[in-house]
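Appendix B.2, paired examples.
Example (i):
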Amino acid sequence: MKQILLLLLSLGCACTGQSQYGYSYRAGGARNLYLGFNFKLGAIDEDVRRQSATGVYPMAVRSSLGTGNIDIDNGISSGFDFQIGYFFSDRSNWGLGTGLIFLRSTGNLTMDPFRVEFASTDERGDVFRQMISSNGTVRENIKTRNWGLPVLVKFRTDISDFIGFSIDAGAVFNLAMRTSYQAVNRFDYEAVYRFTGTGDNVSTVYDNAPTPQPDSWIITREQFERTHPGQDAAAYFQLLRAQGYRVALDQEVRGSGRRSANSSPGFLVQPSFNFKLGEGFRINVGGYYMRQSFKYGASQDDMQLTNEIGAYNTLLYHVRKRTHEYYGVNIGFSLHL
């Protein structure tokens, strides 16, 4: 797609350089005012930079949160732009324009299989070691909506009596960028309890050893299957959960919501061939390329992917910066008044 856009730009420039025609929109008087509308369809590439995950979970023995890759697999992008412009040179070839551009895109945000072990407190106030692991890759479906204000330098010329070439280039200032997400993932919630004291003075302490102490109460699938071969681990975990222990196996966890981001100015280039259908009316067919960066902020609590059964925070809290590259085809029309 990018190669096609470059080819279109090169072809238009070559035809413009060889053209013997002047600018013919001015027949019957100057046509300096420009109005245009284009539909856009294409793709999006994203580069993702992540936040530091240091200290996100309290007293973590181990955590894959800061080491697992976070990727975005993008789908299609589509949208539109509306422009108003004015051409001011003697031949009305050069001008300035502004308007509104809207692009939406879809994709999948993923993170490598997740595991964390950290200090927590259950419903009875007992301190214990919570162990959470995802059953496979963590995945979210995302939809991004991006509104921008372009400020463009515009150039237009004729190649023949019926075909023209135009190109817009300039800055895009973001008005709003919001990403909605929907997630359905499955996690195992396991635990380690270590007891201290005797008689009526028994309490729990946090077992922070890399390998849990032999005399700790280890509530994991592996431990149960080793000590109770052939028995139902899921039923055992359900029984403990009913008693107030924060344990569960293959627990479905859902999450949905929306996040906004701050942006820096981007830039847009869109060359087009223009086909004359009437005096001052043209059909535009061409391409576009737009690049823009967005930044997020997040607290450490927000960055806890899940810290108890059923809780979920989006992977977007782990993204520090997203750089969007939109590219595709334009089809629209323009009025030259």
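Example (ii):
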Amino acid sequence: MHIVWAILRVTLLGLQTETGSNRQALEVRCAAVDLEACYSLALDFYYGDSVEWPPEEGATRELDLAAQFFNLACEGGHAEGCESLARMYAEGEGVSSDPARAVELFSRACQLDATAGCIKLGNIYRDGHQVTRDLPQAASLYQRACDANETMGCGHLADMYADRPDFARDLGRAITLYRKECDSNQGPGSGHGCMALGRMYEEGVGLEKDLGAAAQLYEKACEGTYIPSCLPLARMLDDGRGVPQDRERATLLFKWLCDVGGYKEACQR
């Protein structure tokens, strides 16, 4: 490890003449084994001059250096550094694609309490991607994330209880988990849970049919920028089901969804 940090210091000395003062400050702190500074420096190289996520096409980025500093942060026990590097190996972004290395790093990130790493690893075990499919292990990883209030984990686990024929069906458990996700108000992610509950109310599956409750949940999810929920809301507004009919608003939603792309039905309305 001492050799690694010595090499790092040489690397940073070569970079300091090319960067601004903020990056130079991070470089000094990183060379002094400040893991948060190394992680911030990695993010700086990863995003480059991009101001969006995902980084826009054509942005000037230095992915090889990003991977190097994510790795240094991870080696020092920085959970998000491990998770970020795992994504790069999983997607072959700036490094050669290495699914086995990605699994190893997601596992380490999860052990270090990076809940996003637990969810990514859960997805891998759920889908059997580069590992033997293991639904109980996937469920355990989603539960770990959910217990840490990463409610996307709650939603993924709820999907398994509600929808997978090869997993123990438990609609009551799914409803509880969807409610936790919906009530979290964690941006678009919580909309997944709200939409799922809305669908259950609309169809009378696991819950007593209640079109008004369904419309309210679709509305909440759509206002929270969970785009898929805007389509069933538009349908209900157009038909006057569960809400007063409002074809003008329905038309605006259908047009917006058509412009977003991927919603053929909206374009046909």
